[in-house]
Design goal:
This protein has 16 helices and ten strands. By secondary structure, it is an alpha/beta fold. It is a multi-pass membrane protein.
Length: 460
């Protein structure tokens, strides 16, 4: 894993991004050089346009979800996403290189080269996602521990990290209860450092069920680190592997003395400028869609077009959230708050569609412009549910240290949820965001939101 602006990315993902961007730049410059000295003077112009196209392709591929781990995605689905990217990428390549100076030699040939490069990038995205060569890039991980915590780490790696190869589980000095299969349990040969080096381990995840009475060989773990082996505790492992902060494996000390949770005046000011600019642009672009939605809601059922409800905002301050009405007007006729569920019978036909593609969220752009919300942040909840969840879930109030968002890390990473257990899962994503939020992560979340809208997946 590589940490960029506080956010963890797979090294393989970063390499794929750099390869794709480099391929476009190389292709257009190669076309120029192939034409001889007469057009070498156009290289600066071509290179700048190539960088512009490469940046646009990064946005398109990210918004299409082509840089996300495939997990259970089929080759057919990857091809469909690539074709969708081509629909935007090819006209964009033509438009960008049509802006080359009219005296640039072989402008048409350069444009064709750029379009071929775009197609090659999309083909590479599909190939790289499903190629067996991925196994050559795997990190060898040793799990130090054999208890329930170690078993949880192993299960997480198998499901969430295709680039991880579990070497085995090494029991701690005082561990008595083993929860992993016997064939996966290793025997210490010499010191921990000797064992790790013999197994050619890249990383050790410390997941001991018992960490008292000398069960943590600190000196040996330090030696492993000095030999270039990464050593992480279980909380950090989940943070970088799942982009979550698992509340069962953290304590207040880890949250307080670790890095992150930096708000800052500069960060707040930059985020506010970003919110105002992006909300204004999206509002203008989406206004025709919002107008059609308003008419559809009015035609389907009697009642108001917009739905206003009190939610909890920054530092627990209440505000009125604005959304398109997607439920019947008598959705809570008994006056008792209810969780919205996946196939909620209170949702209207128009409401079901606009909820699926997130159109119902668009009026919240007004909340952003008013300063009550941000473009990116935890989902705003009702006071009734906040009080309930604070009493049941540790650290739930931490998510109120930033403004709620129109979209957020939990919304794009977790499927629809309507229980306390679902709230725990979403909170773990929210804690990751509050701890590590930067403009870089905000941009990634907004790009992933586009992918969620296009595929109809994600949480509400």
């Amino acid at each position: 894993m590589v940490r960029i602006f506080n956010h963890y990315l797979h090294r393989q993902t970063l390499l794929h991004v750099l390869f794709d961007l480099g391929l476009i730049l190389f292709a257009v410059v190669a076309v120029v050089l192939s034409q001889g000295d007469a057009v070498v003077t156009t290289i600066p112009f071509v290179a700048s346009h190539g960088l512009s196209l490469a940046g646009c392709m990064f946005v398109i591929n990210s918004a299409s979800g082509l840089y996300q781990p495939v997990h259970n995605r089929s080759v057919t689905e990857s091809c469909a996403r690539a074709l969708l990217g081509l629909m935007f990428g090819l006209p964009l390549a033509y438009a960008i290189f049509s802006l080359l100076p009219t005296n640039a030699g072989h402008r048409e040939l350069i444009t064709i080269g750029a379009m071929v490069a775009v197609a090659a990038v999309m083909a590479h995205r599909v190939y790289a996602a499903h190629s067996s060569t991925q196994s050559r890039l795997r990190s060898r991980i040793l799990i130090f521990g054999c208890g329930e915590a170690a078993k949880s780490v192993g299960a997480t790696l198998k499901v969430s990290d295709p680039h991880a190869e579990i070497v085995g589980y090494l029991p701690g000095p005082n561990e008595e209860k083993f929860c992993v299969a016997a064939e996966q349990t290793l025997t210490m040969q010499g010191t921990l450092t000797d064992t790790a080096r013999r197994l050619n381990v890249d990383e050790i995840v410390v997941a001991l069920s018992e960490r008292r009475g000398g069960s943590m060989p600190m000196r040996q773990l330090l030696d492993c680190k000095l030999y270039g082996i990464r050593v992480v505790d279980i909380a950090t492992h989940f943070e970088k592997t799942l982009a979550q902060i698992k509340i069962n494996h953290v304590n207040a000390g880890w949250l307080i003395f670790g890095d992150g949770f930096n708000q800052g005046v500069v960060r707040t000011a930059v985020k506010r400028v970003f919110d105002v600019v992006s909300a204004s642009l999206i509002f203008l672009a989406a206004f025709p869609v919002m107008l059609v939605t308003a008419v559809a809601i009015k035609l389907e059922s009697a009642g108001p077009i917009f739905y206003r409800q009190e939610r909890v905002g920054l530092n627990g301050k209440p505000f009125k959230v604005i959304k398109f009405r997607s439920m019947r007007t008598d959705a809570e006729k008994d006056g008792k708050p209810r969780w919205a569920t996946l196939n909620d019978d209170r949702v209207t036909k128009v409401g079901r569609f606009i909820r699926k593609v997130r159109i119902d969220e668009l009026p919240q752009l007004l909340n952003v412009l008013q300063g009550d919300m941000s473009m990116v942040g935890p989902r705003p909840e009702r006071q009734y549910f906040v009080d309930e969840l604070i009493s049941k879930i540790p650290y739930f109030a931490v998510r109120q240290s930033v403004k709620p968002g129109v979209t957020g890390w939990a919304q794009v990473r977790y499927e629809y949820g309507s229980t306390v257990e679902d709230s725990v899962e979403k909170l773990q994503y929210d804690l990751y965001y509050v701890k590590n939020h930067t403009m870089f992560l905000d941009m990634l979340i907004m790009l992933e939101t586009v992918a969620v809208v296009l595929t109809g997946k994600g949480a509400r």
